[in-house]
Amino acid sequence: MAASSRGLVAPPLPLWPRRTVAAGIRSSCPSSAYGKFAKAEEWRLDSRRSLRRVPSMPFPSPRSQRLFKRQGFYPQCSPKSSPPRSRDTPPKRDTGIASEKDWGINLLDEHVNESGINEDGGTWYRESGEDLGDNGHRCRWARMGGQSHDGSTEWKETWWEKSDWTGYKELGAEKSGKNADGDVWWETWKEVLYQDEWSNLARIERSAEKQAKSGIENAGWYERWWEKHDAKGWTEKGAHKYGRLNEQSWWEKWGEHYDGRGFVLKWTDKWAETELGTRWGDKWEEKFCAGIGSRQGETWHVSPTGDRWSRTWGEEHYGNGKVHKYGKSTTVESWDIVVDEETYYEAEPHYGWADVVGDSTQLLSIQPQERPPGVFPLLDFGSSLPQTEDPPTCSL
After folding, report:
1. What is the pLDDT of residue 380?
2. Which residues make Cβ contacts (< 8 Å) with residue 310, sequence separation at least 6?
3. For residue 23, how many other CB atoms are within 10 A of its CB?
4. What digits encode the pLDDT tens for the residues 53-106?
5. CA separation for the pair 273, 304 (Å, rounded)
6. Over 318-373, what HEC string results?
7. N- to C-terminal Cα distance for the chain?
8. What's CA 180's distance to the chain center, in Å?
9. What share of the chain is helix, strand, coil (3-state, %, to 5)?
């Protein structure tokens, strides 16, 4: 939620890449991707300090846009009689963390090891297996891939399922490839269920990490998203993103934290620059609990000659209908007022524990392993206490 300082007009700023609302713990199982550079959407600051979306120049070249129309990005394991289908498009930008059903993970019960040659001369393979490790660790996996006859197009996809006797469960996938245009990409997704060793609460963590680079333009991007939830409503979400399109580069970071007891922290920091030396950015933060809290932020712009413009602003919400608003800019404007205004903030995540449990049926269905003989939980009665991730309740 963007904060507002009403009635103040900022000088026009260059456009932002799209801001969407969360990645990655890498798996040691065998590894895979697809999707094409999506059309970038951007954000502009308006006079009310809110963010609105405006159209932007397309991210891909016209030729690569044609490839983006392909369907069937999430294949299932096909019958042995038919080869797996090839995909030649990278993942989309700003799609966040996909669900289990979108990834279509289908691990076969039987082991498969097969390969073949297509009519056009391209090759393919498909295999699956199960690895057993120490302390009851089990990893089931399936892998498929292929390449064109001249090697200009390649793709690989891997899915896995992990479990052990402690109740740890993991479901994941990895995809990678390249196409005839020279585009290359890599993407991974994972969700994990485990019991927190200090609170004994069940926790589910979901993550996604993806990157792609154009073979035609000087363009590429990287994104990492994550979500963490526990059974008492504690939630943490965030994302780190950066990219480049010809002469312009941009970065973005954002985070959300809900302690499950009323405290909320949200923040965003993003900036961009051009090869000519123009730089601009915007950041804000808000903290609330029981209707009392604060917001603050800054918007800034630096010209190629080094001239800098900035505006800082803040809001203090007292919980009684009174809001103190203050701020100033380098153009000598300033304000410091108290107004009667209703305080609004989101005290709970729009996607919380109940939602993530409902969308994790395949993860929850993984069967736990039996505890191996002679293996017991690790107990540590040291004097040091664990560092908690939770902020103090209602500490603003």
Report:
1. 54
2. 298, 299, 300, 301, 329, 330
3. 22
4. 333 322 333 333 333 333 333 334 444 557 777 666 788 888 889 999 888 888
5. 10
6. CCCCEEEEEEEECCCCEEEEEEECCCCCCCCCCCCHHHHHHCCHHHHCCCCCCCCC
7. 18
8. 28
9. 5, 45, 50
